[in-house]
Design brief:
Order of helices and strands: EEEEEEEHEEHHEEEHEEHEH
CATH topology: HIT family, subunit A
Largest sheet: 10 strands, antiparallel
Number of domains: 1
Helix content: 25-40%
Strand content: 15-25%
Structural class: alpha+beta
Shape: globular
Length: about 325
């Protein structure tokens, strides 16, 4: 029988359509396009991007030239622009403000054929540390309330370039998805005086059916009410509301766990397109006792259609217990 399941944080219901259950091999990976050898994100092509704002560099190399291990550059086609004032205004019942923000690209490696799943752990750690440094820097701007770090991998997931990269966008308002998590977390805390995410971690570690792996202070879990097949969350075991408060040691641990999970996912599902999103505390609320930062990873295996858009229900043909079992049984990085 199908099941209706309720997310314990935001109260969103999903349909686990067990009668549509599919094996991992039933999800067809997107056709592999011939990989180009050179693009704007490749080493030697630095002039094709805006000047870097942060980079890992080998000794005696100059900014905006070869010799880097990762680069952070402003997006050439930004969703929001850094210049200007917010100038909030109203038109009757409608509110608006100037599209001020920051939009940056993290080029994760000079190797055109590499990915976060194949990079050494130290290289993945450098990317995560770059996220932290950019969040800390953008946090100084009083116009910004939030920074969303995200990754689109594969054309079906929204990636316009195949060279592995991630992005971050600083916004003057808190995104609605994060606001819903903040509100749900605060409501739970007001009722029970405990963090819902910490309770979730304790229960999943004890139960084990949806636990994919636990290592180096992080838990990888298939959520109880996943919107999509093989949706996965990575959370720190230690309560921490703000990602940017993580130590270098913690982020190096996360690098190993993230690389291991992506390796398993790629082996099981055939290198699927995917998105990941980092949800962290807003800039002015970093010490929240009710919130817990986390990374959400969503392979693009199904399509959202009319019922989902019209109702707000998501239909997922893969129970999270089955997804966790298949991922646990897949070999990780050695």
């Amino acid at each position: 029988m199908p099941e209706l399941r309720k997310d314990p944080v935001v109260g969103r219901w999903v349909i686990i359509a067990t009668e549509r259950a599919r094996r991992p091999s039933d999800f067809a990976a997107e056709p592999v396009r011939p990989r180009g050898s050179v693009c704007a994100f490749c080493e030697g092509q630095e002039a094709q991007t805006p000047p870097e704002v942060l980079a890992g560099r080998r000794p005696n190399t100059e900014p905006n030239g070869p010799g880097w291990t990762y680069r952070v550059v402003p997006n050439k086609f930004p969703a929001l622009r850094i210049e200007g004032d917010l100038d909030p205004a109203g038109e009757g019942l409608f509110d608006k403000m100037t599209g001020v923000g920051a939009h940056e690209v993290v080029i994760e490696t000079p190797d055109h054929g590499a990915s976060l799943a194949t990079l050494p752990v130290d290289a993945v750690a450098d990317v995560l540390l770059a996220f932290r440094e950019r969040v800390l820097d953008l946090k100084k701007d009083p116009r910004f309330a939030y920074v969303l770090v995200f990754k689109n991998h594969g054309e079906a997931a929204g990636a316009s370039l195949e060279h592995t990269h991630s992005q971050l966008i600083a916004t003057p308002i808190i995104p609605i998805m994060v606001s819903e998590e903040l509100a749900g977390s605060a409501q739970y805390y007001a009722l029970k005086e405990r963090c819902v995410w910490c309770d979730l971690l304790r229960q999943e570690r004890r139960d084990g059916r949806r636990l994919i792996l636990e290592s180096q202070g992080f838990v990888t879990v298939a959520p109880f009410a996943p919107r999509f097949p093989f949706e996965t969350w990575i959370l720190p075991v230690r309560h921490r509301a703000a990602f940017e408060d993580s130590s270098e040691e913690e982020l190096r641990g996360l690098a190993g766990v993230l690389g291991d999970f992506l390796h398993r996912m790629n082996r099981l599902l055939g290198d699927p397109p995917f998105n990941f999103m980092l949800h962290t505390a807003p800039f002015r609320e970093v010490q929240l006792e009710s919130f817990h930062w986390h990374l959400e990873i969503i392979p693009k295996l199904t399509r959202v259609a009319g019922f989902e858009w019209g109702s707000g229900f998501f239909i997922n043909p893969v129970p999270p217990e089955g997804a966790a079992e298949a991922l646990k049984a897949t070999a990780g990085r050695s």
